[in-house]
Write a structure and sequence with these properties.
By secondary structure, this protein is of the alpha+beta class. The protein contains five helices and 14 strands. The longest helix has 17 residues. InterPro entries: Caspase-like_dom_sf, Pept_C14, Pept_C14_caspase, Pept_C14_p10, Pept_C14_p20, Pept_C14A. Heterodimer of a large and a small subunit, both processed from the precursor; the mature active form is a p17/p10 dimer and the intermediate form a p20/p8 dimer.
């Protein structure tokens, strides 16, 4: 019986442009300005073209994602990666805008999938028929390497906490999740999956004091990445 062979690492090409969008509701969310400052520093360090918007309404969450998608598709250079940060109160599967109305996360995620954002097909970002990668006409499709990709591939969703649990934010220091993520992404190198393991480990080792009681939180990660993703 032959010995198992180590996997060969295949990396995403990160030589192109990097674009980011941060949408943050600051209303009744003390400490969120600290989180935006930390994200701004991180995006500058990682060489992302960063756009930040404060206090979007539910409708503006969708409008800003649509604008971001159009910016990506119309960018004059190839785009390697898109990074979107959404910060607001909410419920399971919903975000609350500044106007107290809700927007579905599913609707926000759809804006940048492979069907709706052509420039990000096969790029890391956030029963499928698949979307053609080579335009409307494909001269040759090899059976072992078809020129289609699933609609929702190459996406990484990182939630500040596991579904059904609260996420904690210090009114002066900001969110433990955002502060930990920006510190690790700025000061550590490696595939993003390993960086996320470090973030999870740090958060699991930290106690949050809420209403005089110690509490534990850790992020939840959903990935459809097909290759190793390195931010630096």
């Amino acid at each position: 019986m032959s010995s198992p062979q180590p996997l060969q690492e295949e990396k995403y090409d990160m030589s192109g442009s990097r674009l980011s969008l941060t949408l943050c509701v600051t209303k009744a969310r003390e400490g969120s300005e600290e989180d935006m400052d930390a994200l701004k520093r991180m995006f500058h360090h990682l060489k992302f073209e960063s756009t930040m918007k404060s206090d979007p309404t539910a409708e503006q969450f969708l409008e800003e994602l649509d604008k971001f998608q159009q910016t990506i598709d119309n960018w004059e250079e190839p785009v390697s990666c898109a990074f979107v940060v959404l910060m607001a109160h909410g419920e399971e599967g919903l975000l609350k805008g500044e106007d107290e109305k809700m927007v579905r996360l599913e609707d926000l995620f759809e804006v940048l999938n492979n069907k709706n954002c052509k420039a990000l097909r096969g790029k890391p970002k956030d029963r499928d028929l698949g979307e053609e990668m080579g335009g409307d006409q494909v001269a040759l499709i090899r059976k072992n390497r078809p020129q289609t990709i699933p609609t929702y591939t190459d996406t990484l969703h990182i939630y500040s906490t596991v579904g059904g649990h609260l996420s904690y934010r210090h009114e002066d220091k900001g969110s433990g999740f955002i502060q930990t993520l920006t510190d690790v992404f700025t000061n550590k190198k490696g595939p993003i999956t390993e960086l996320l393991e470090e973030i999870t480990r740090r958060m699991a080792d930290t106690e949050v004091i809420q209403e005089g009681r110690p509490r534990k939180v850790n992020p939840e990660i959903e990935s459809t990445l097909r290759k190793s993703l390195y931010l630096q």
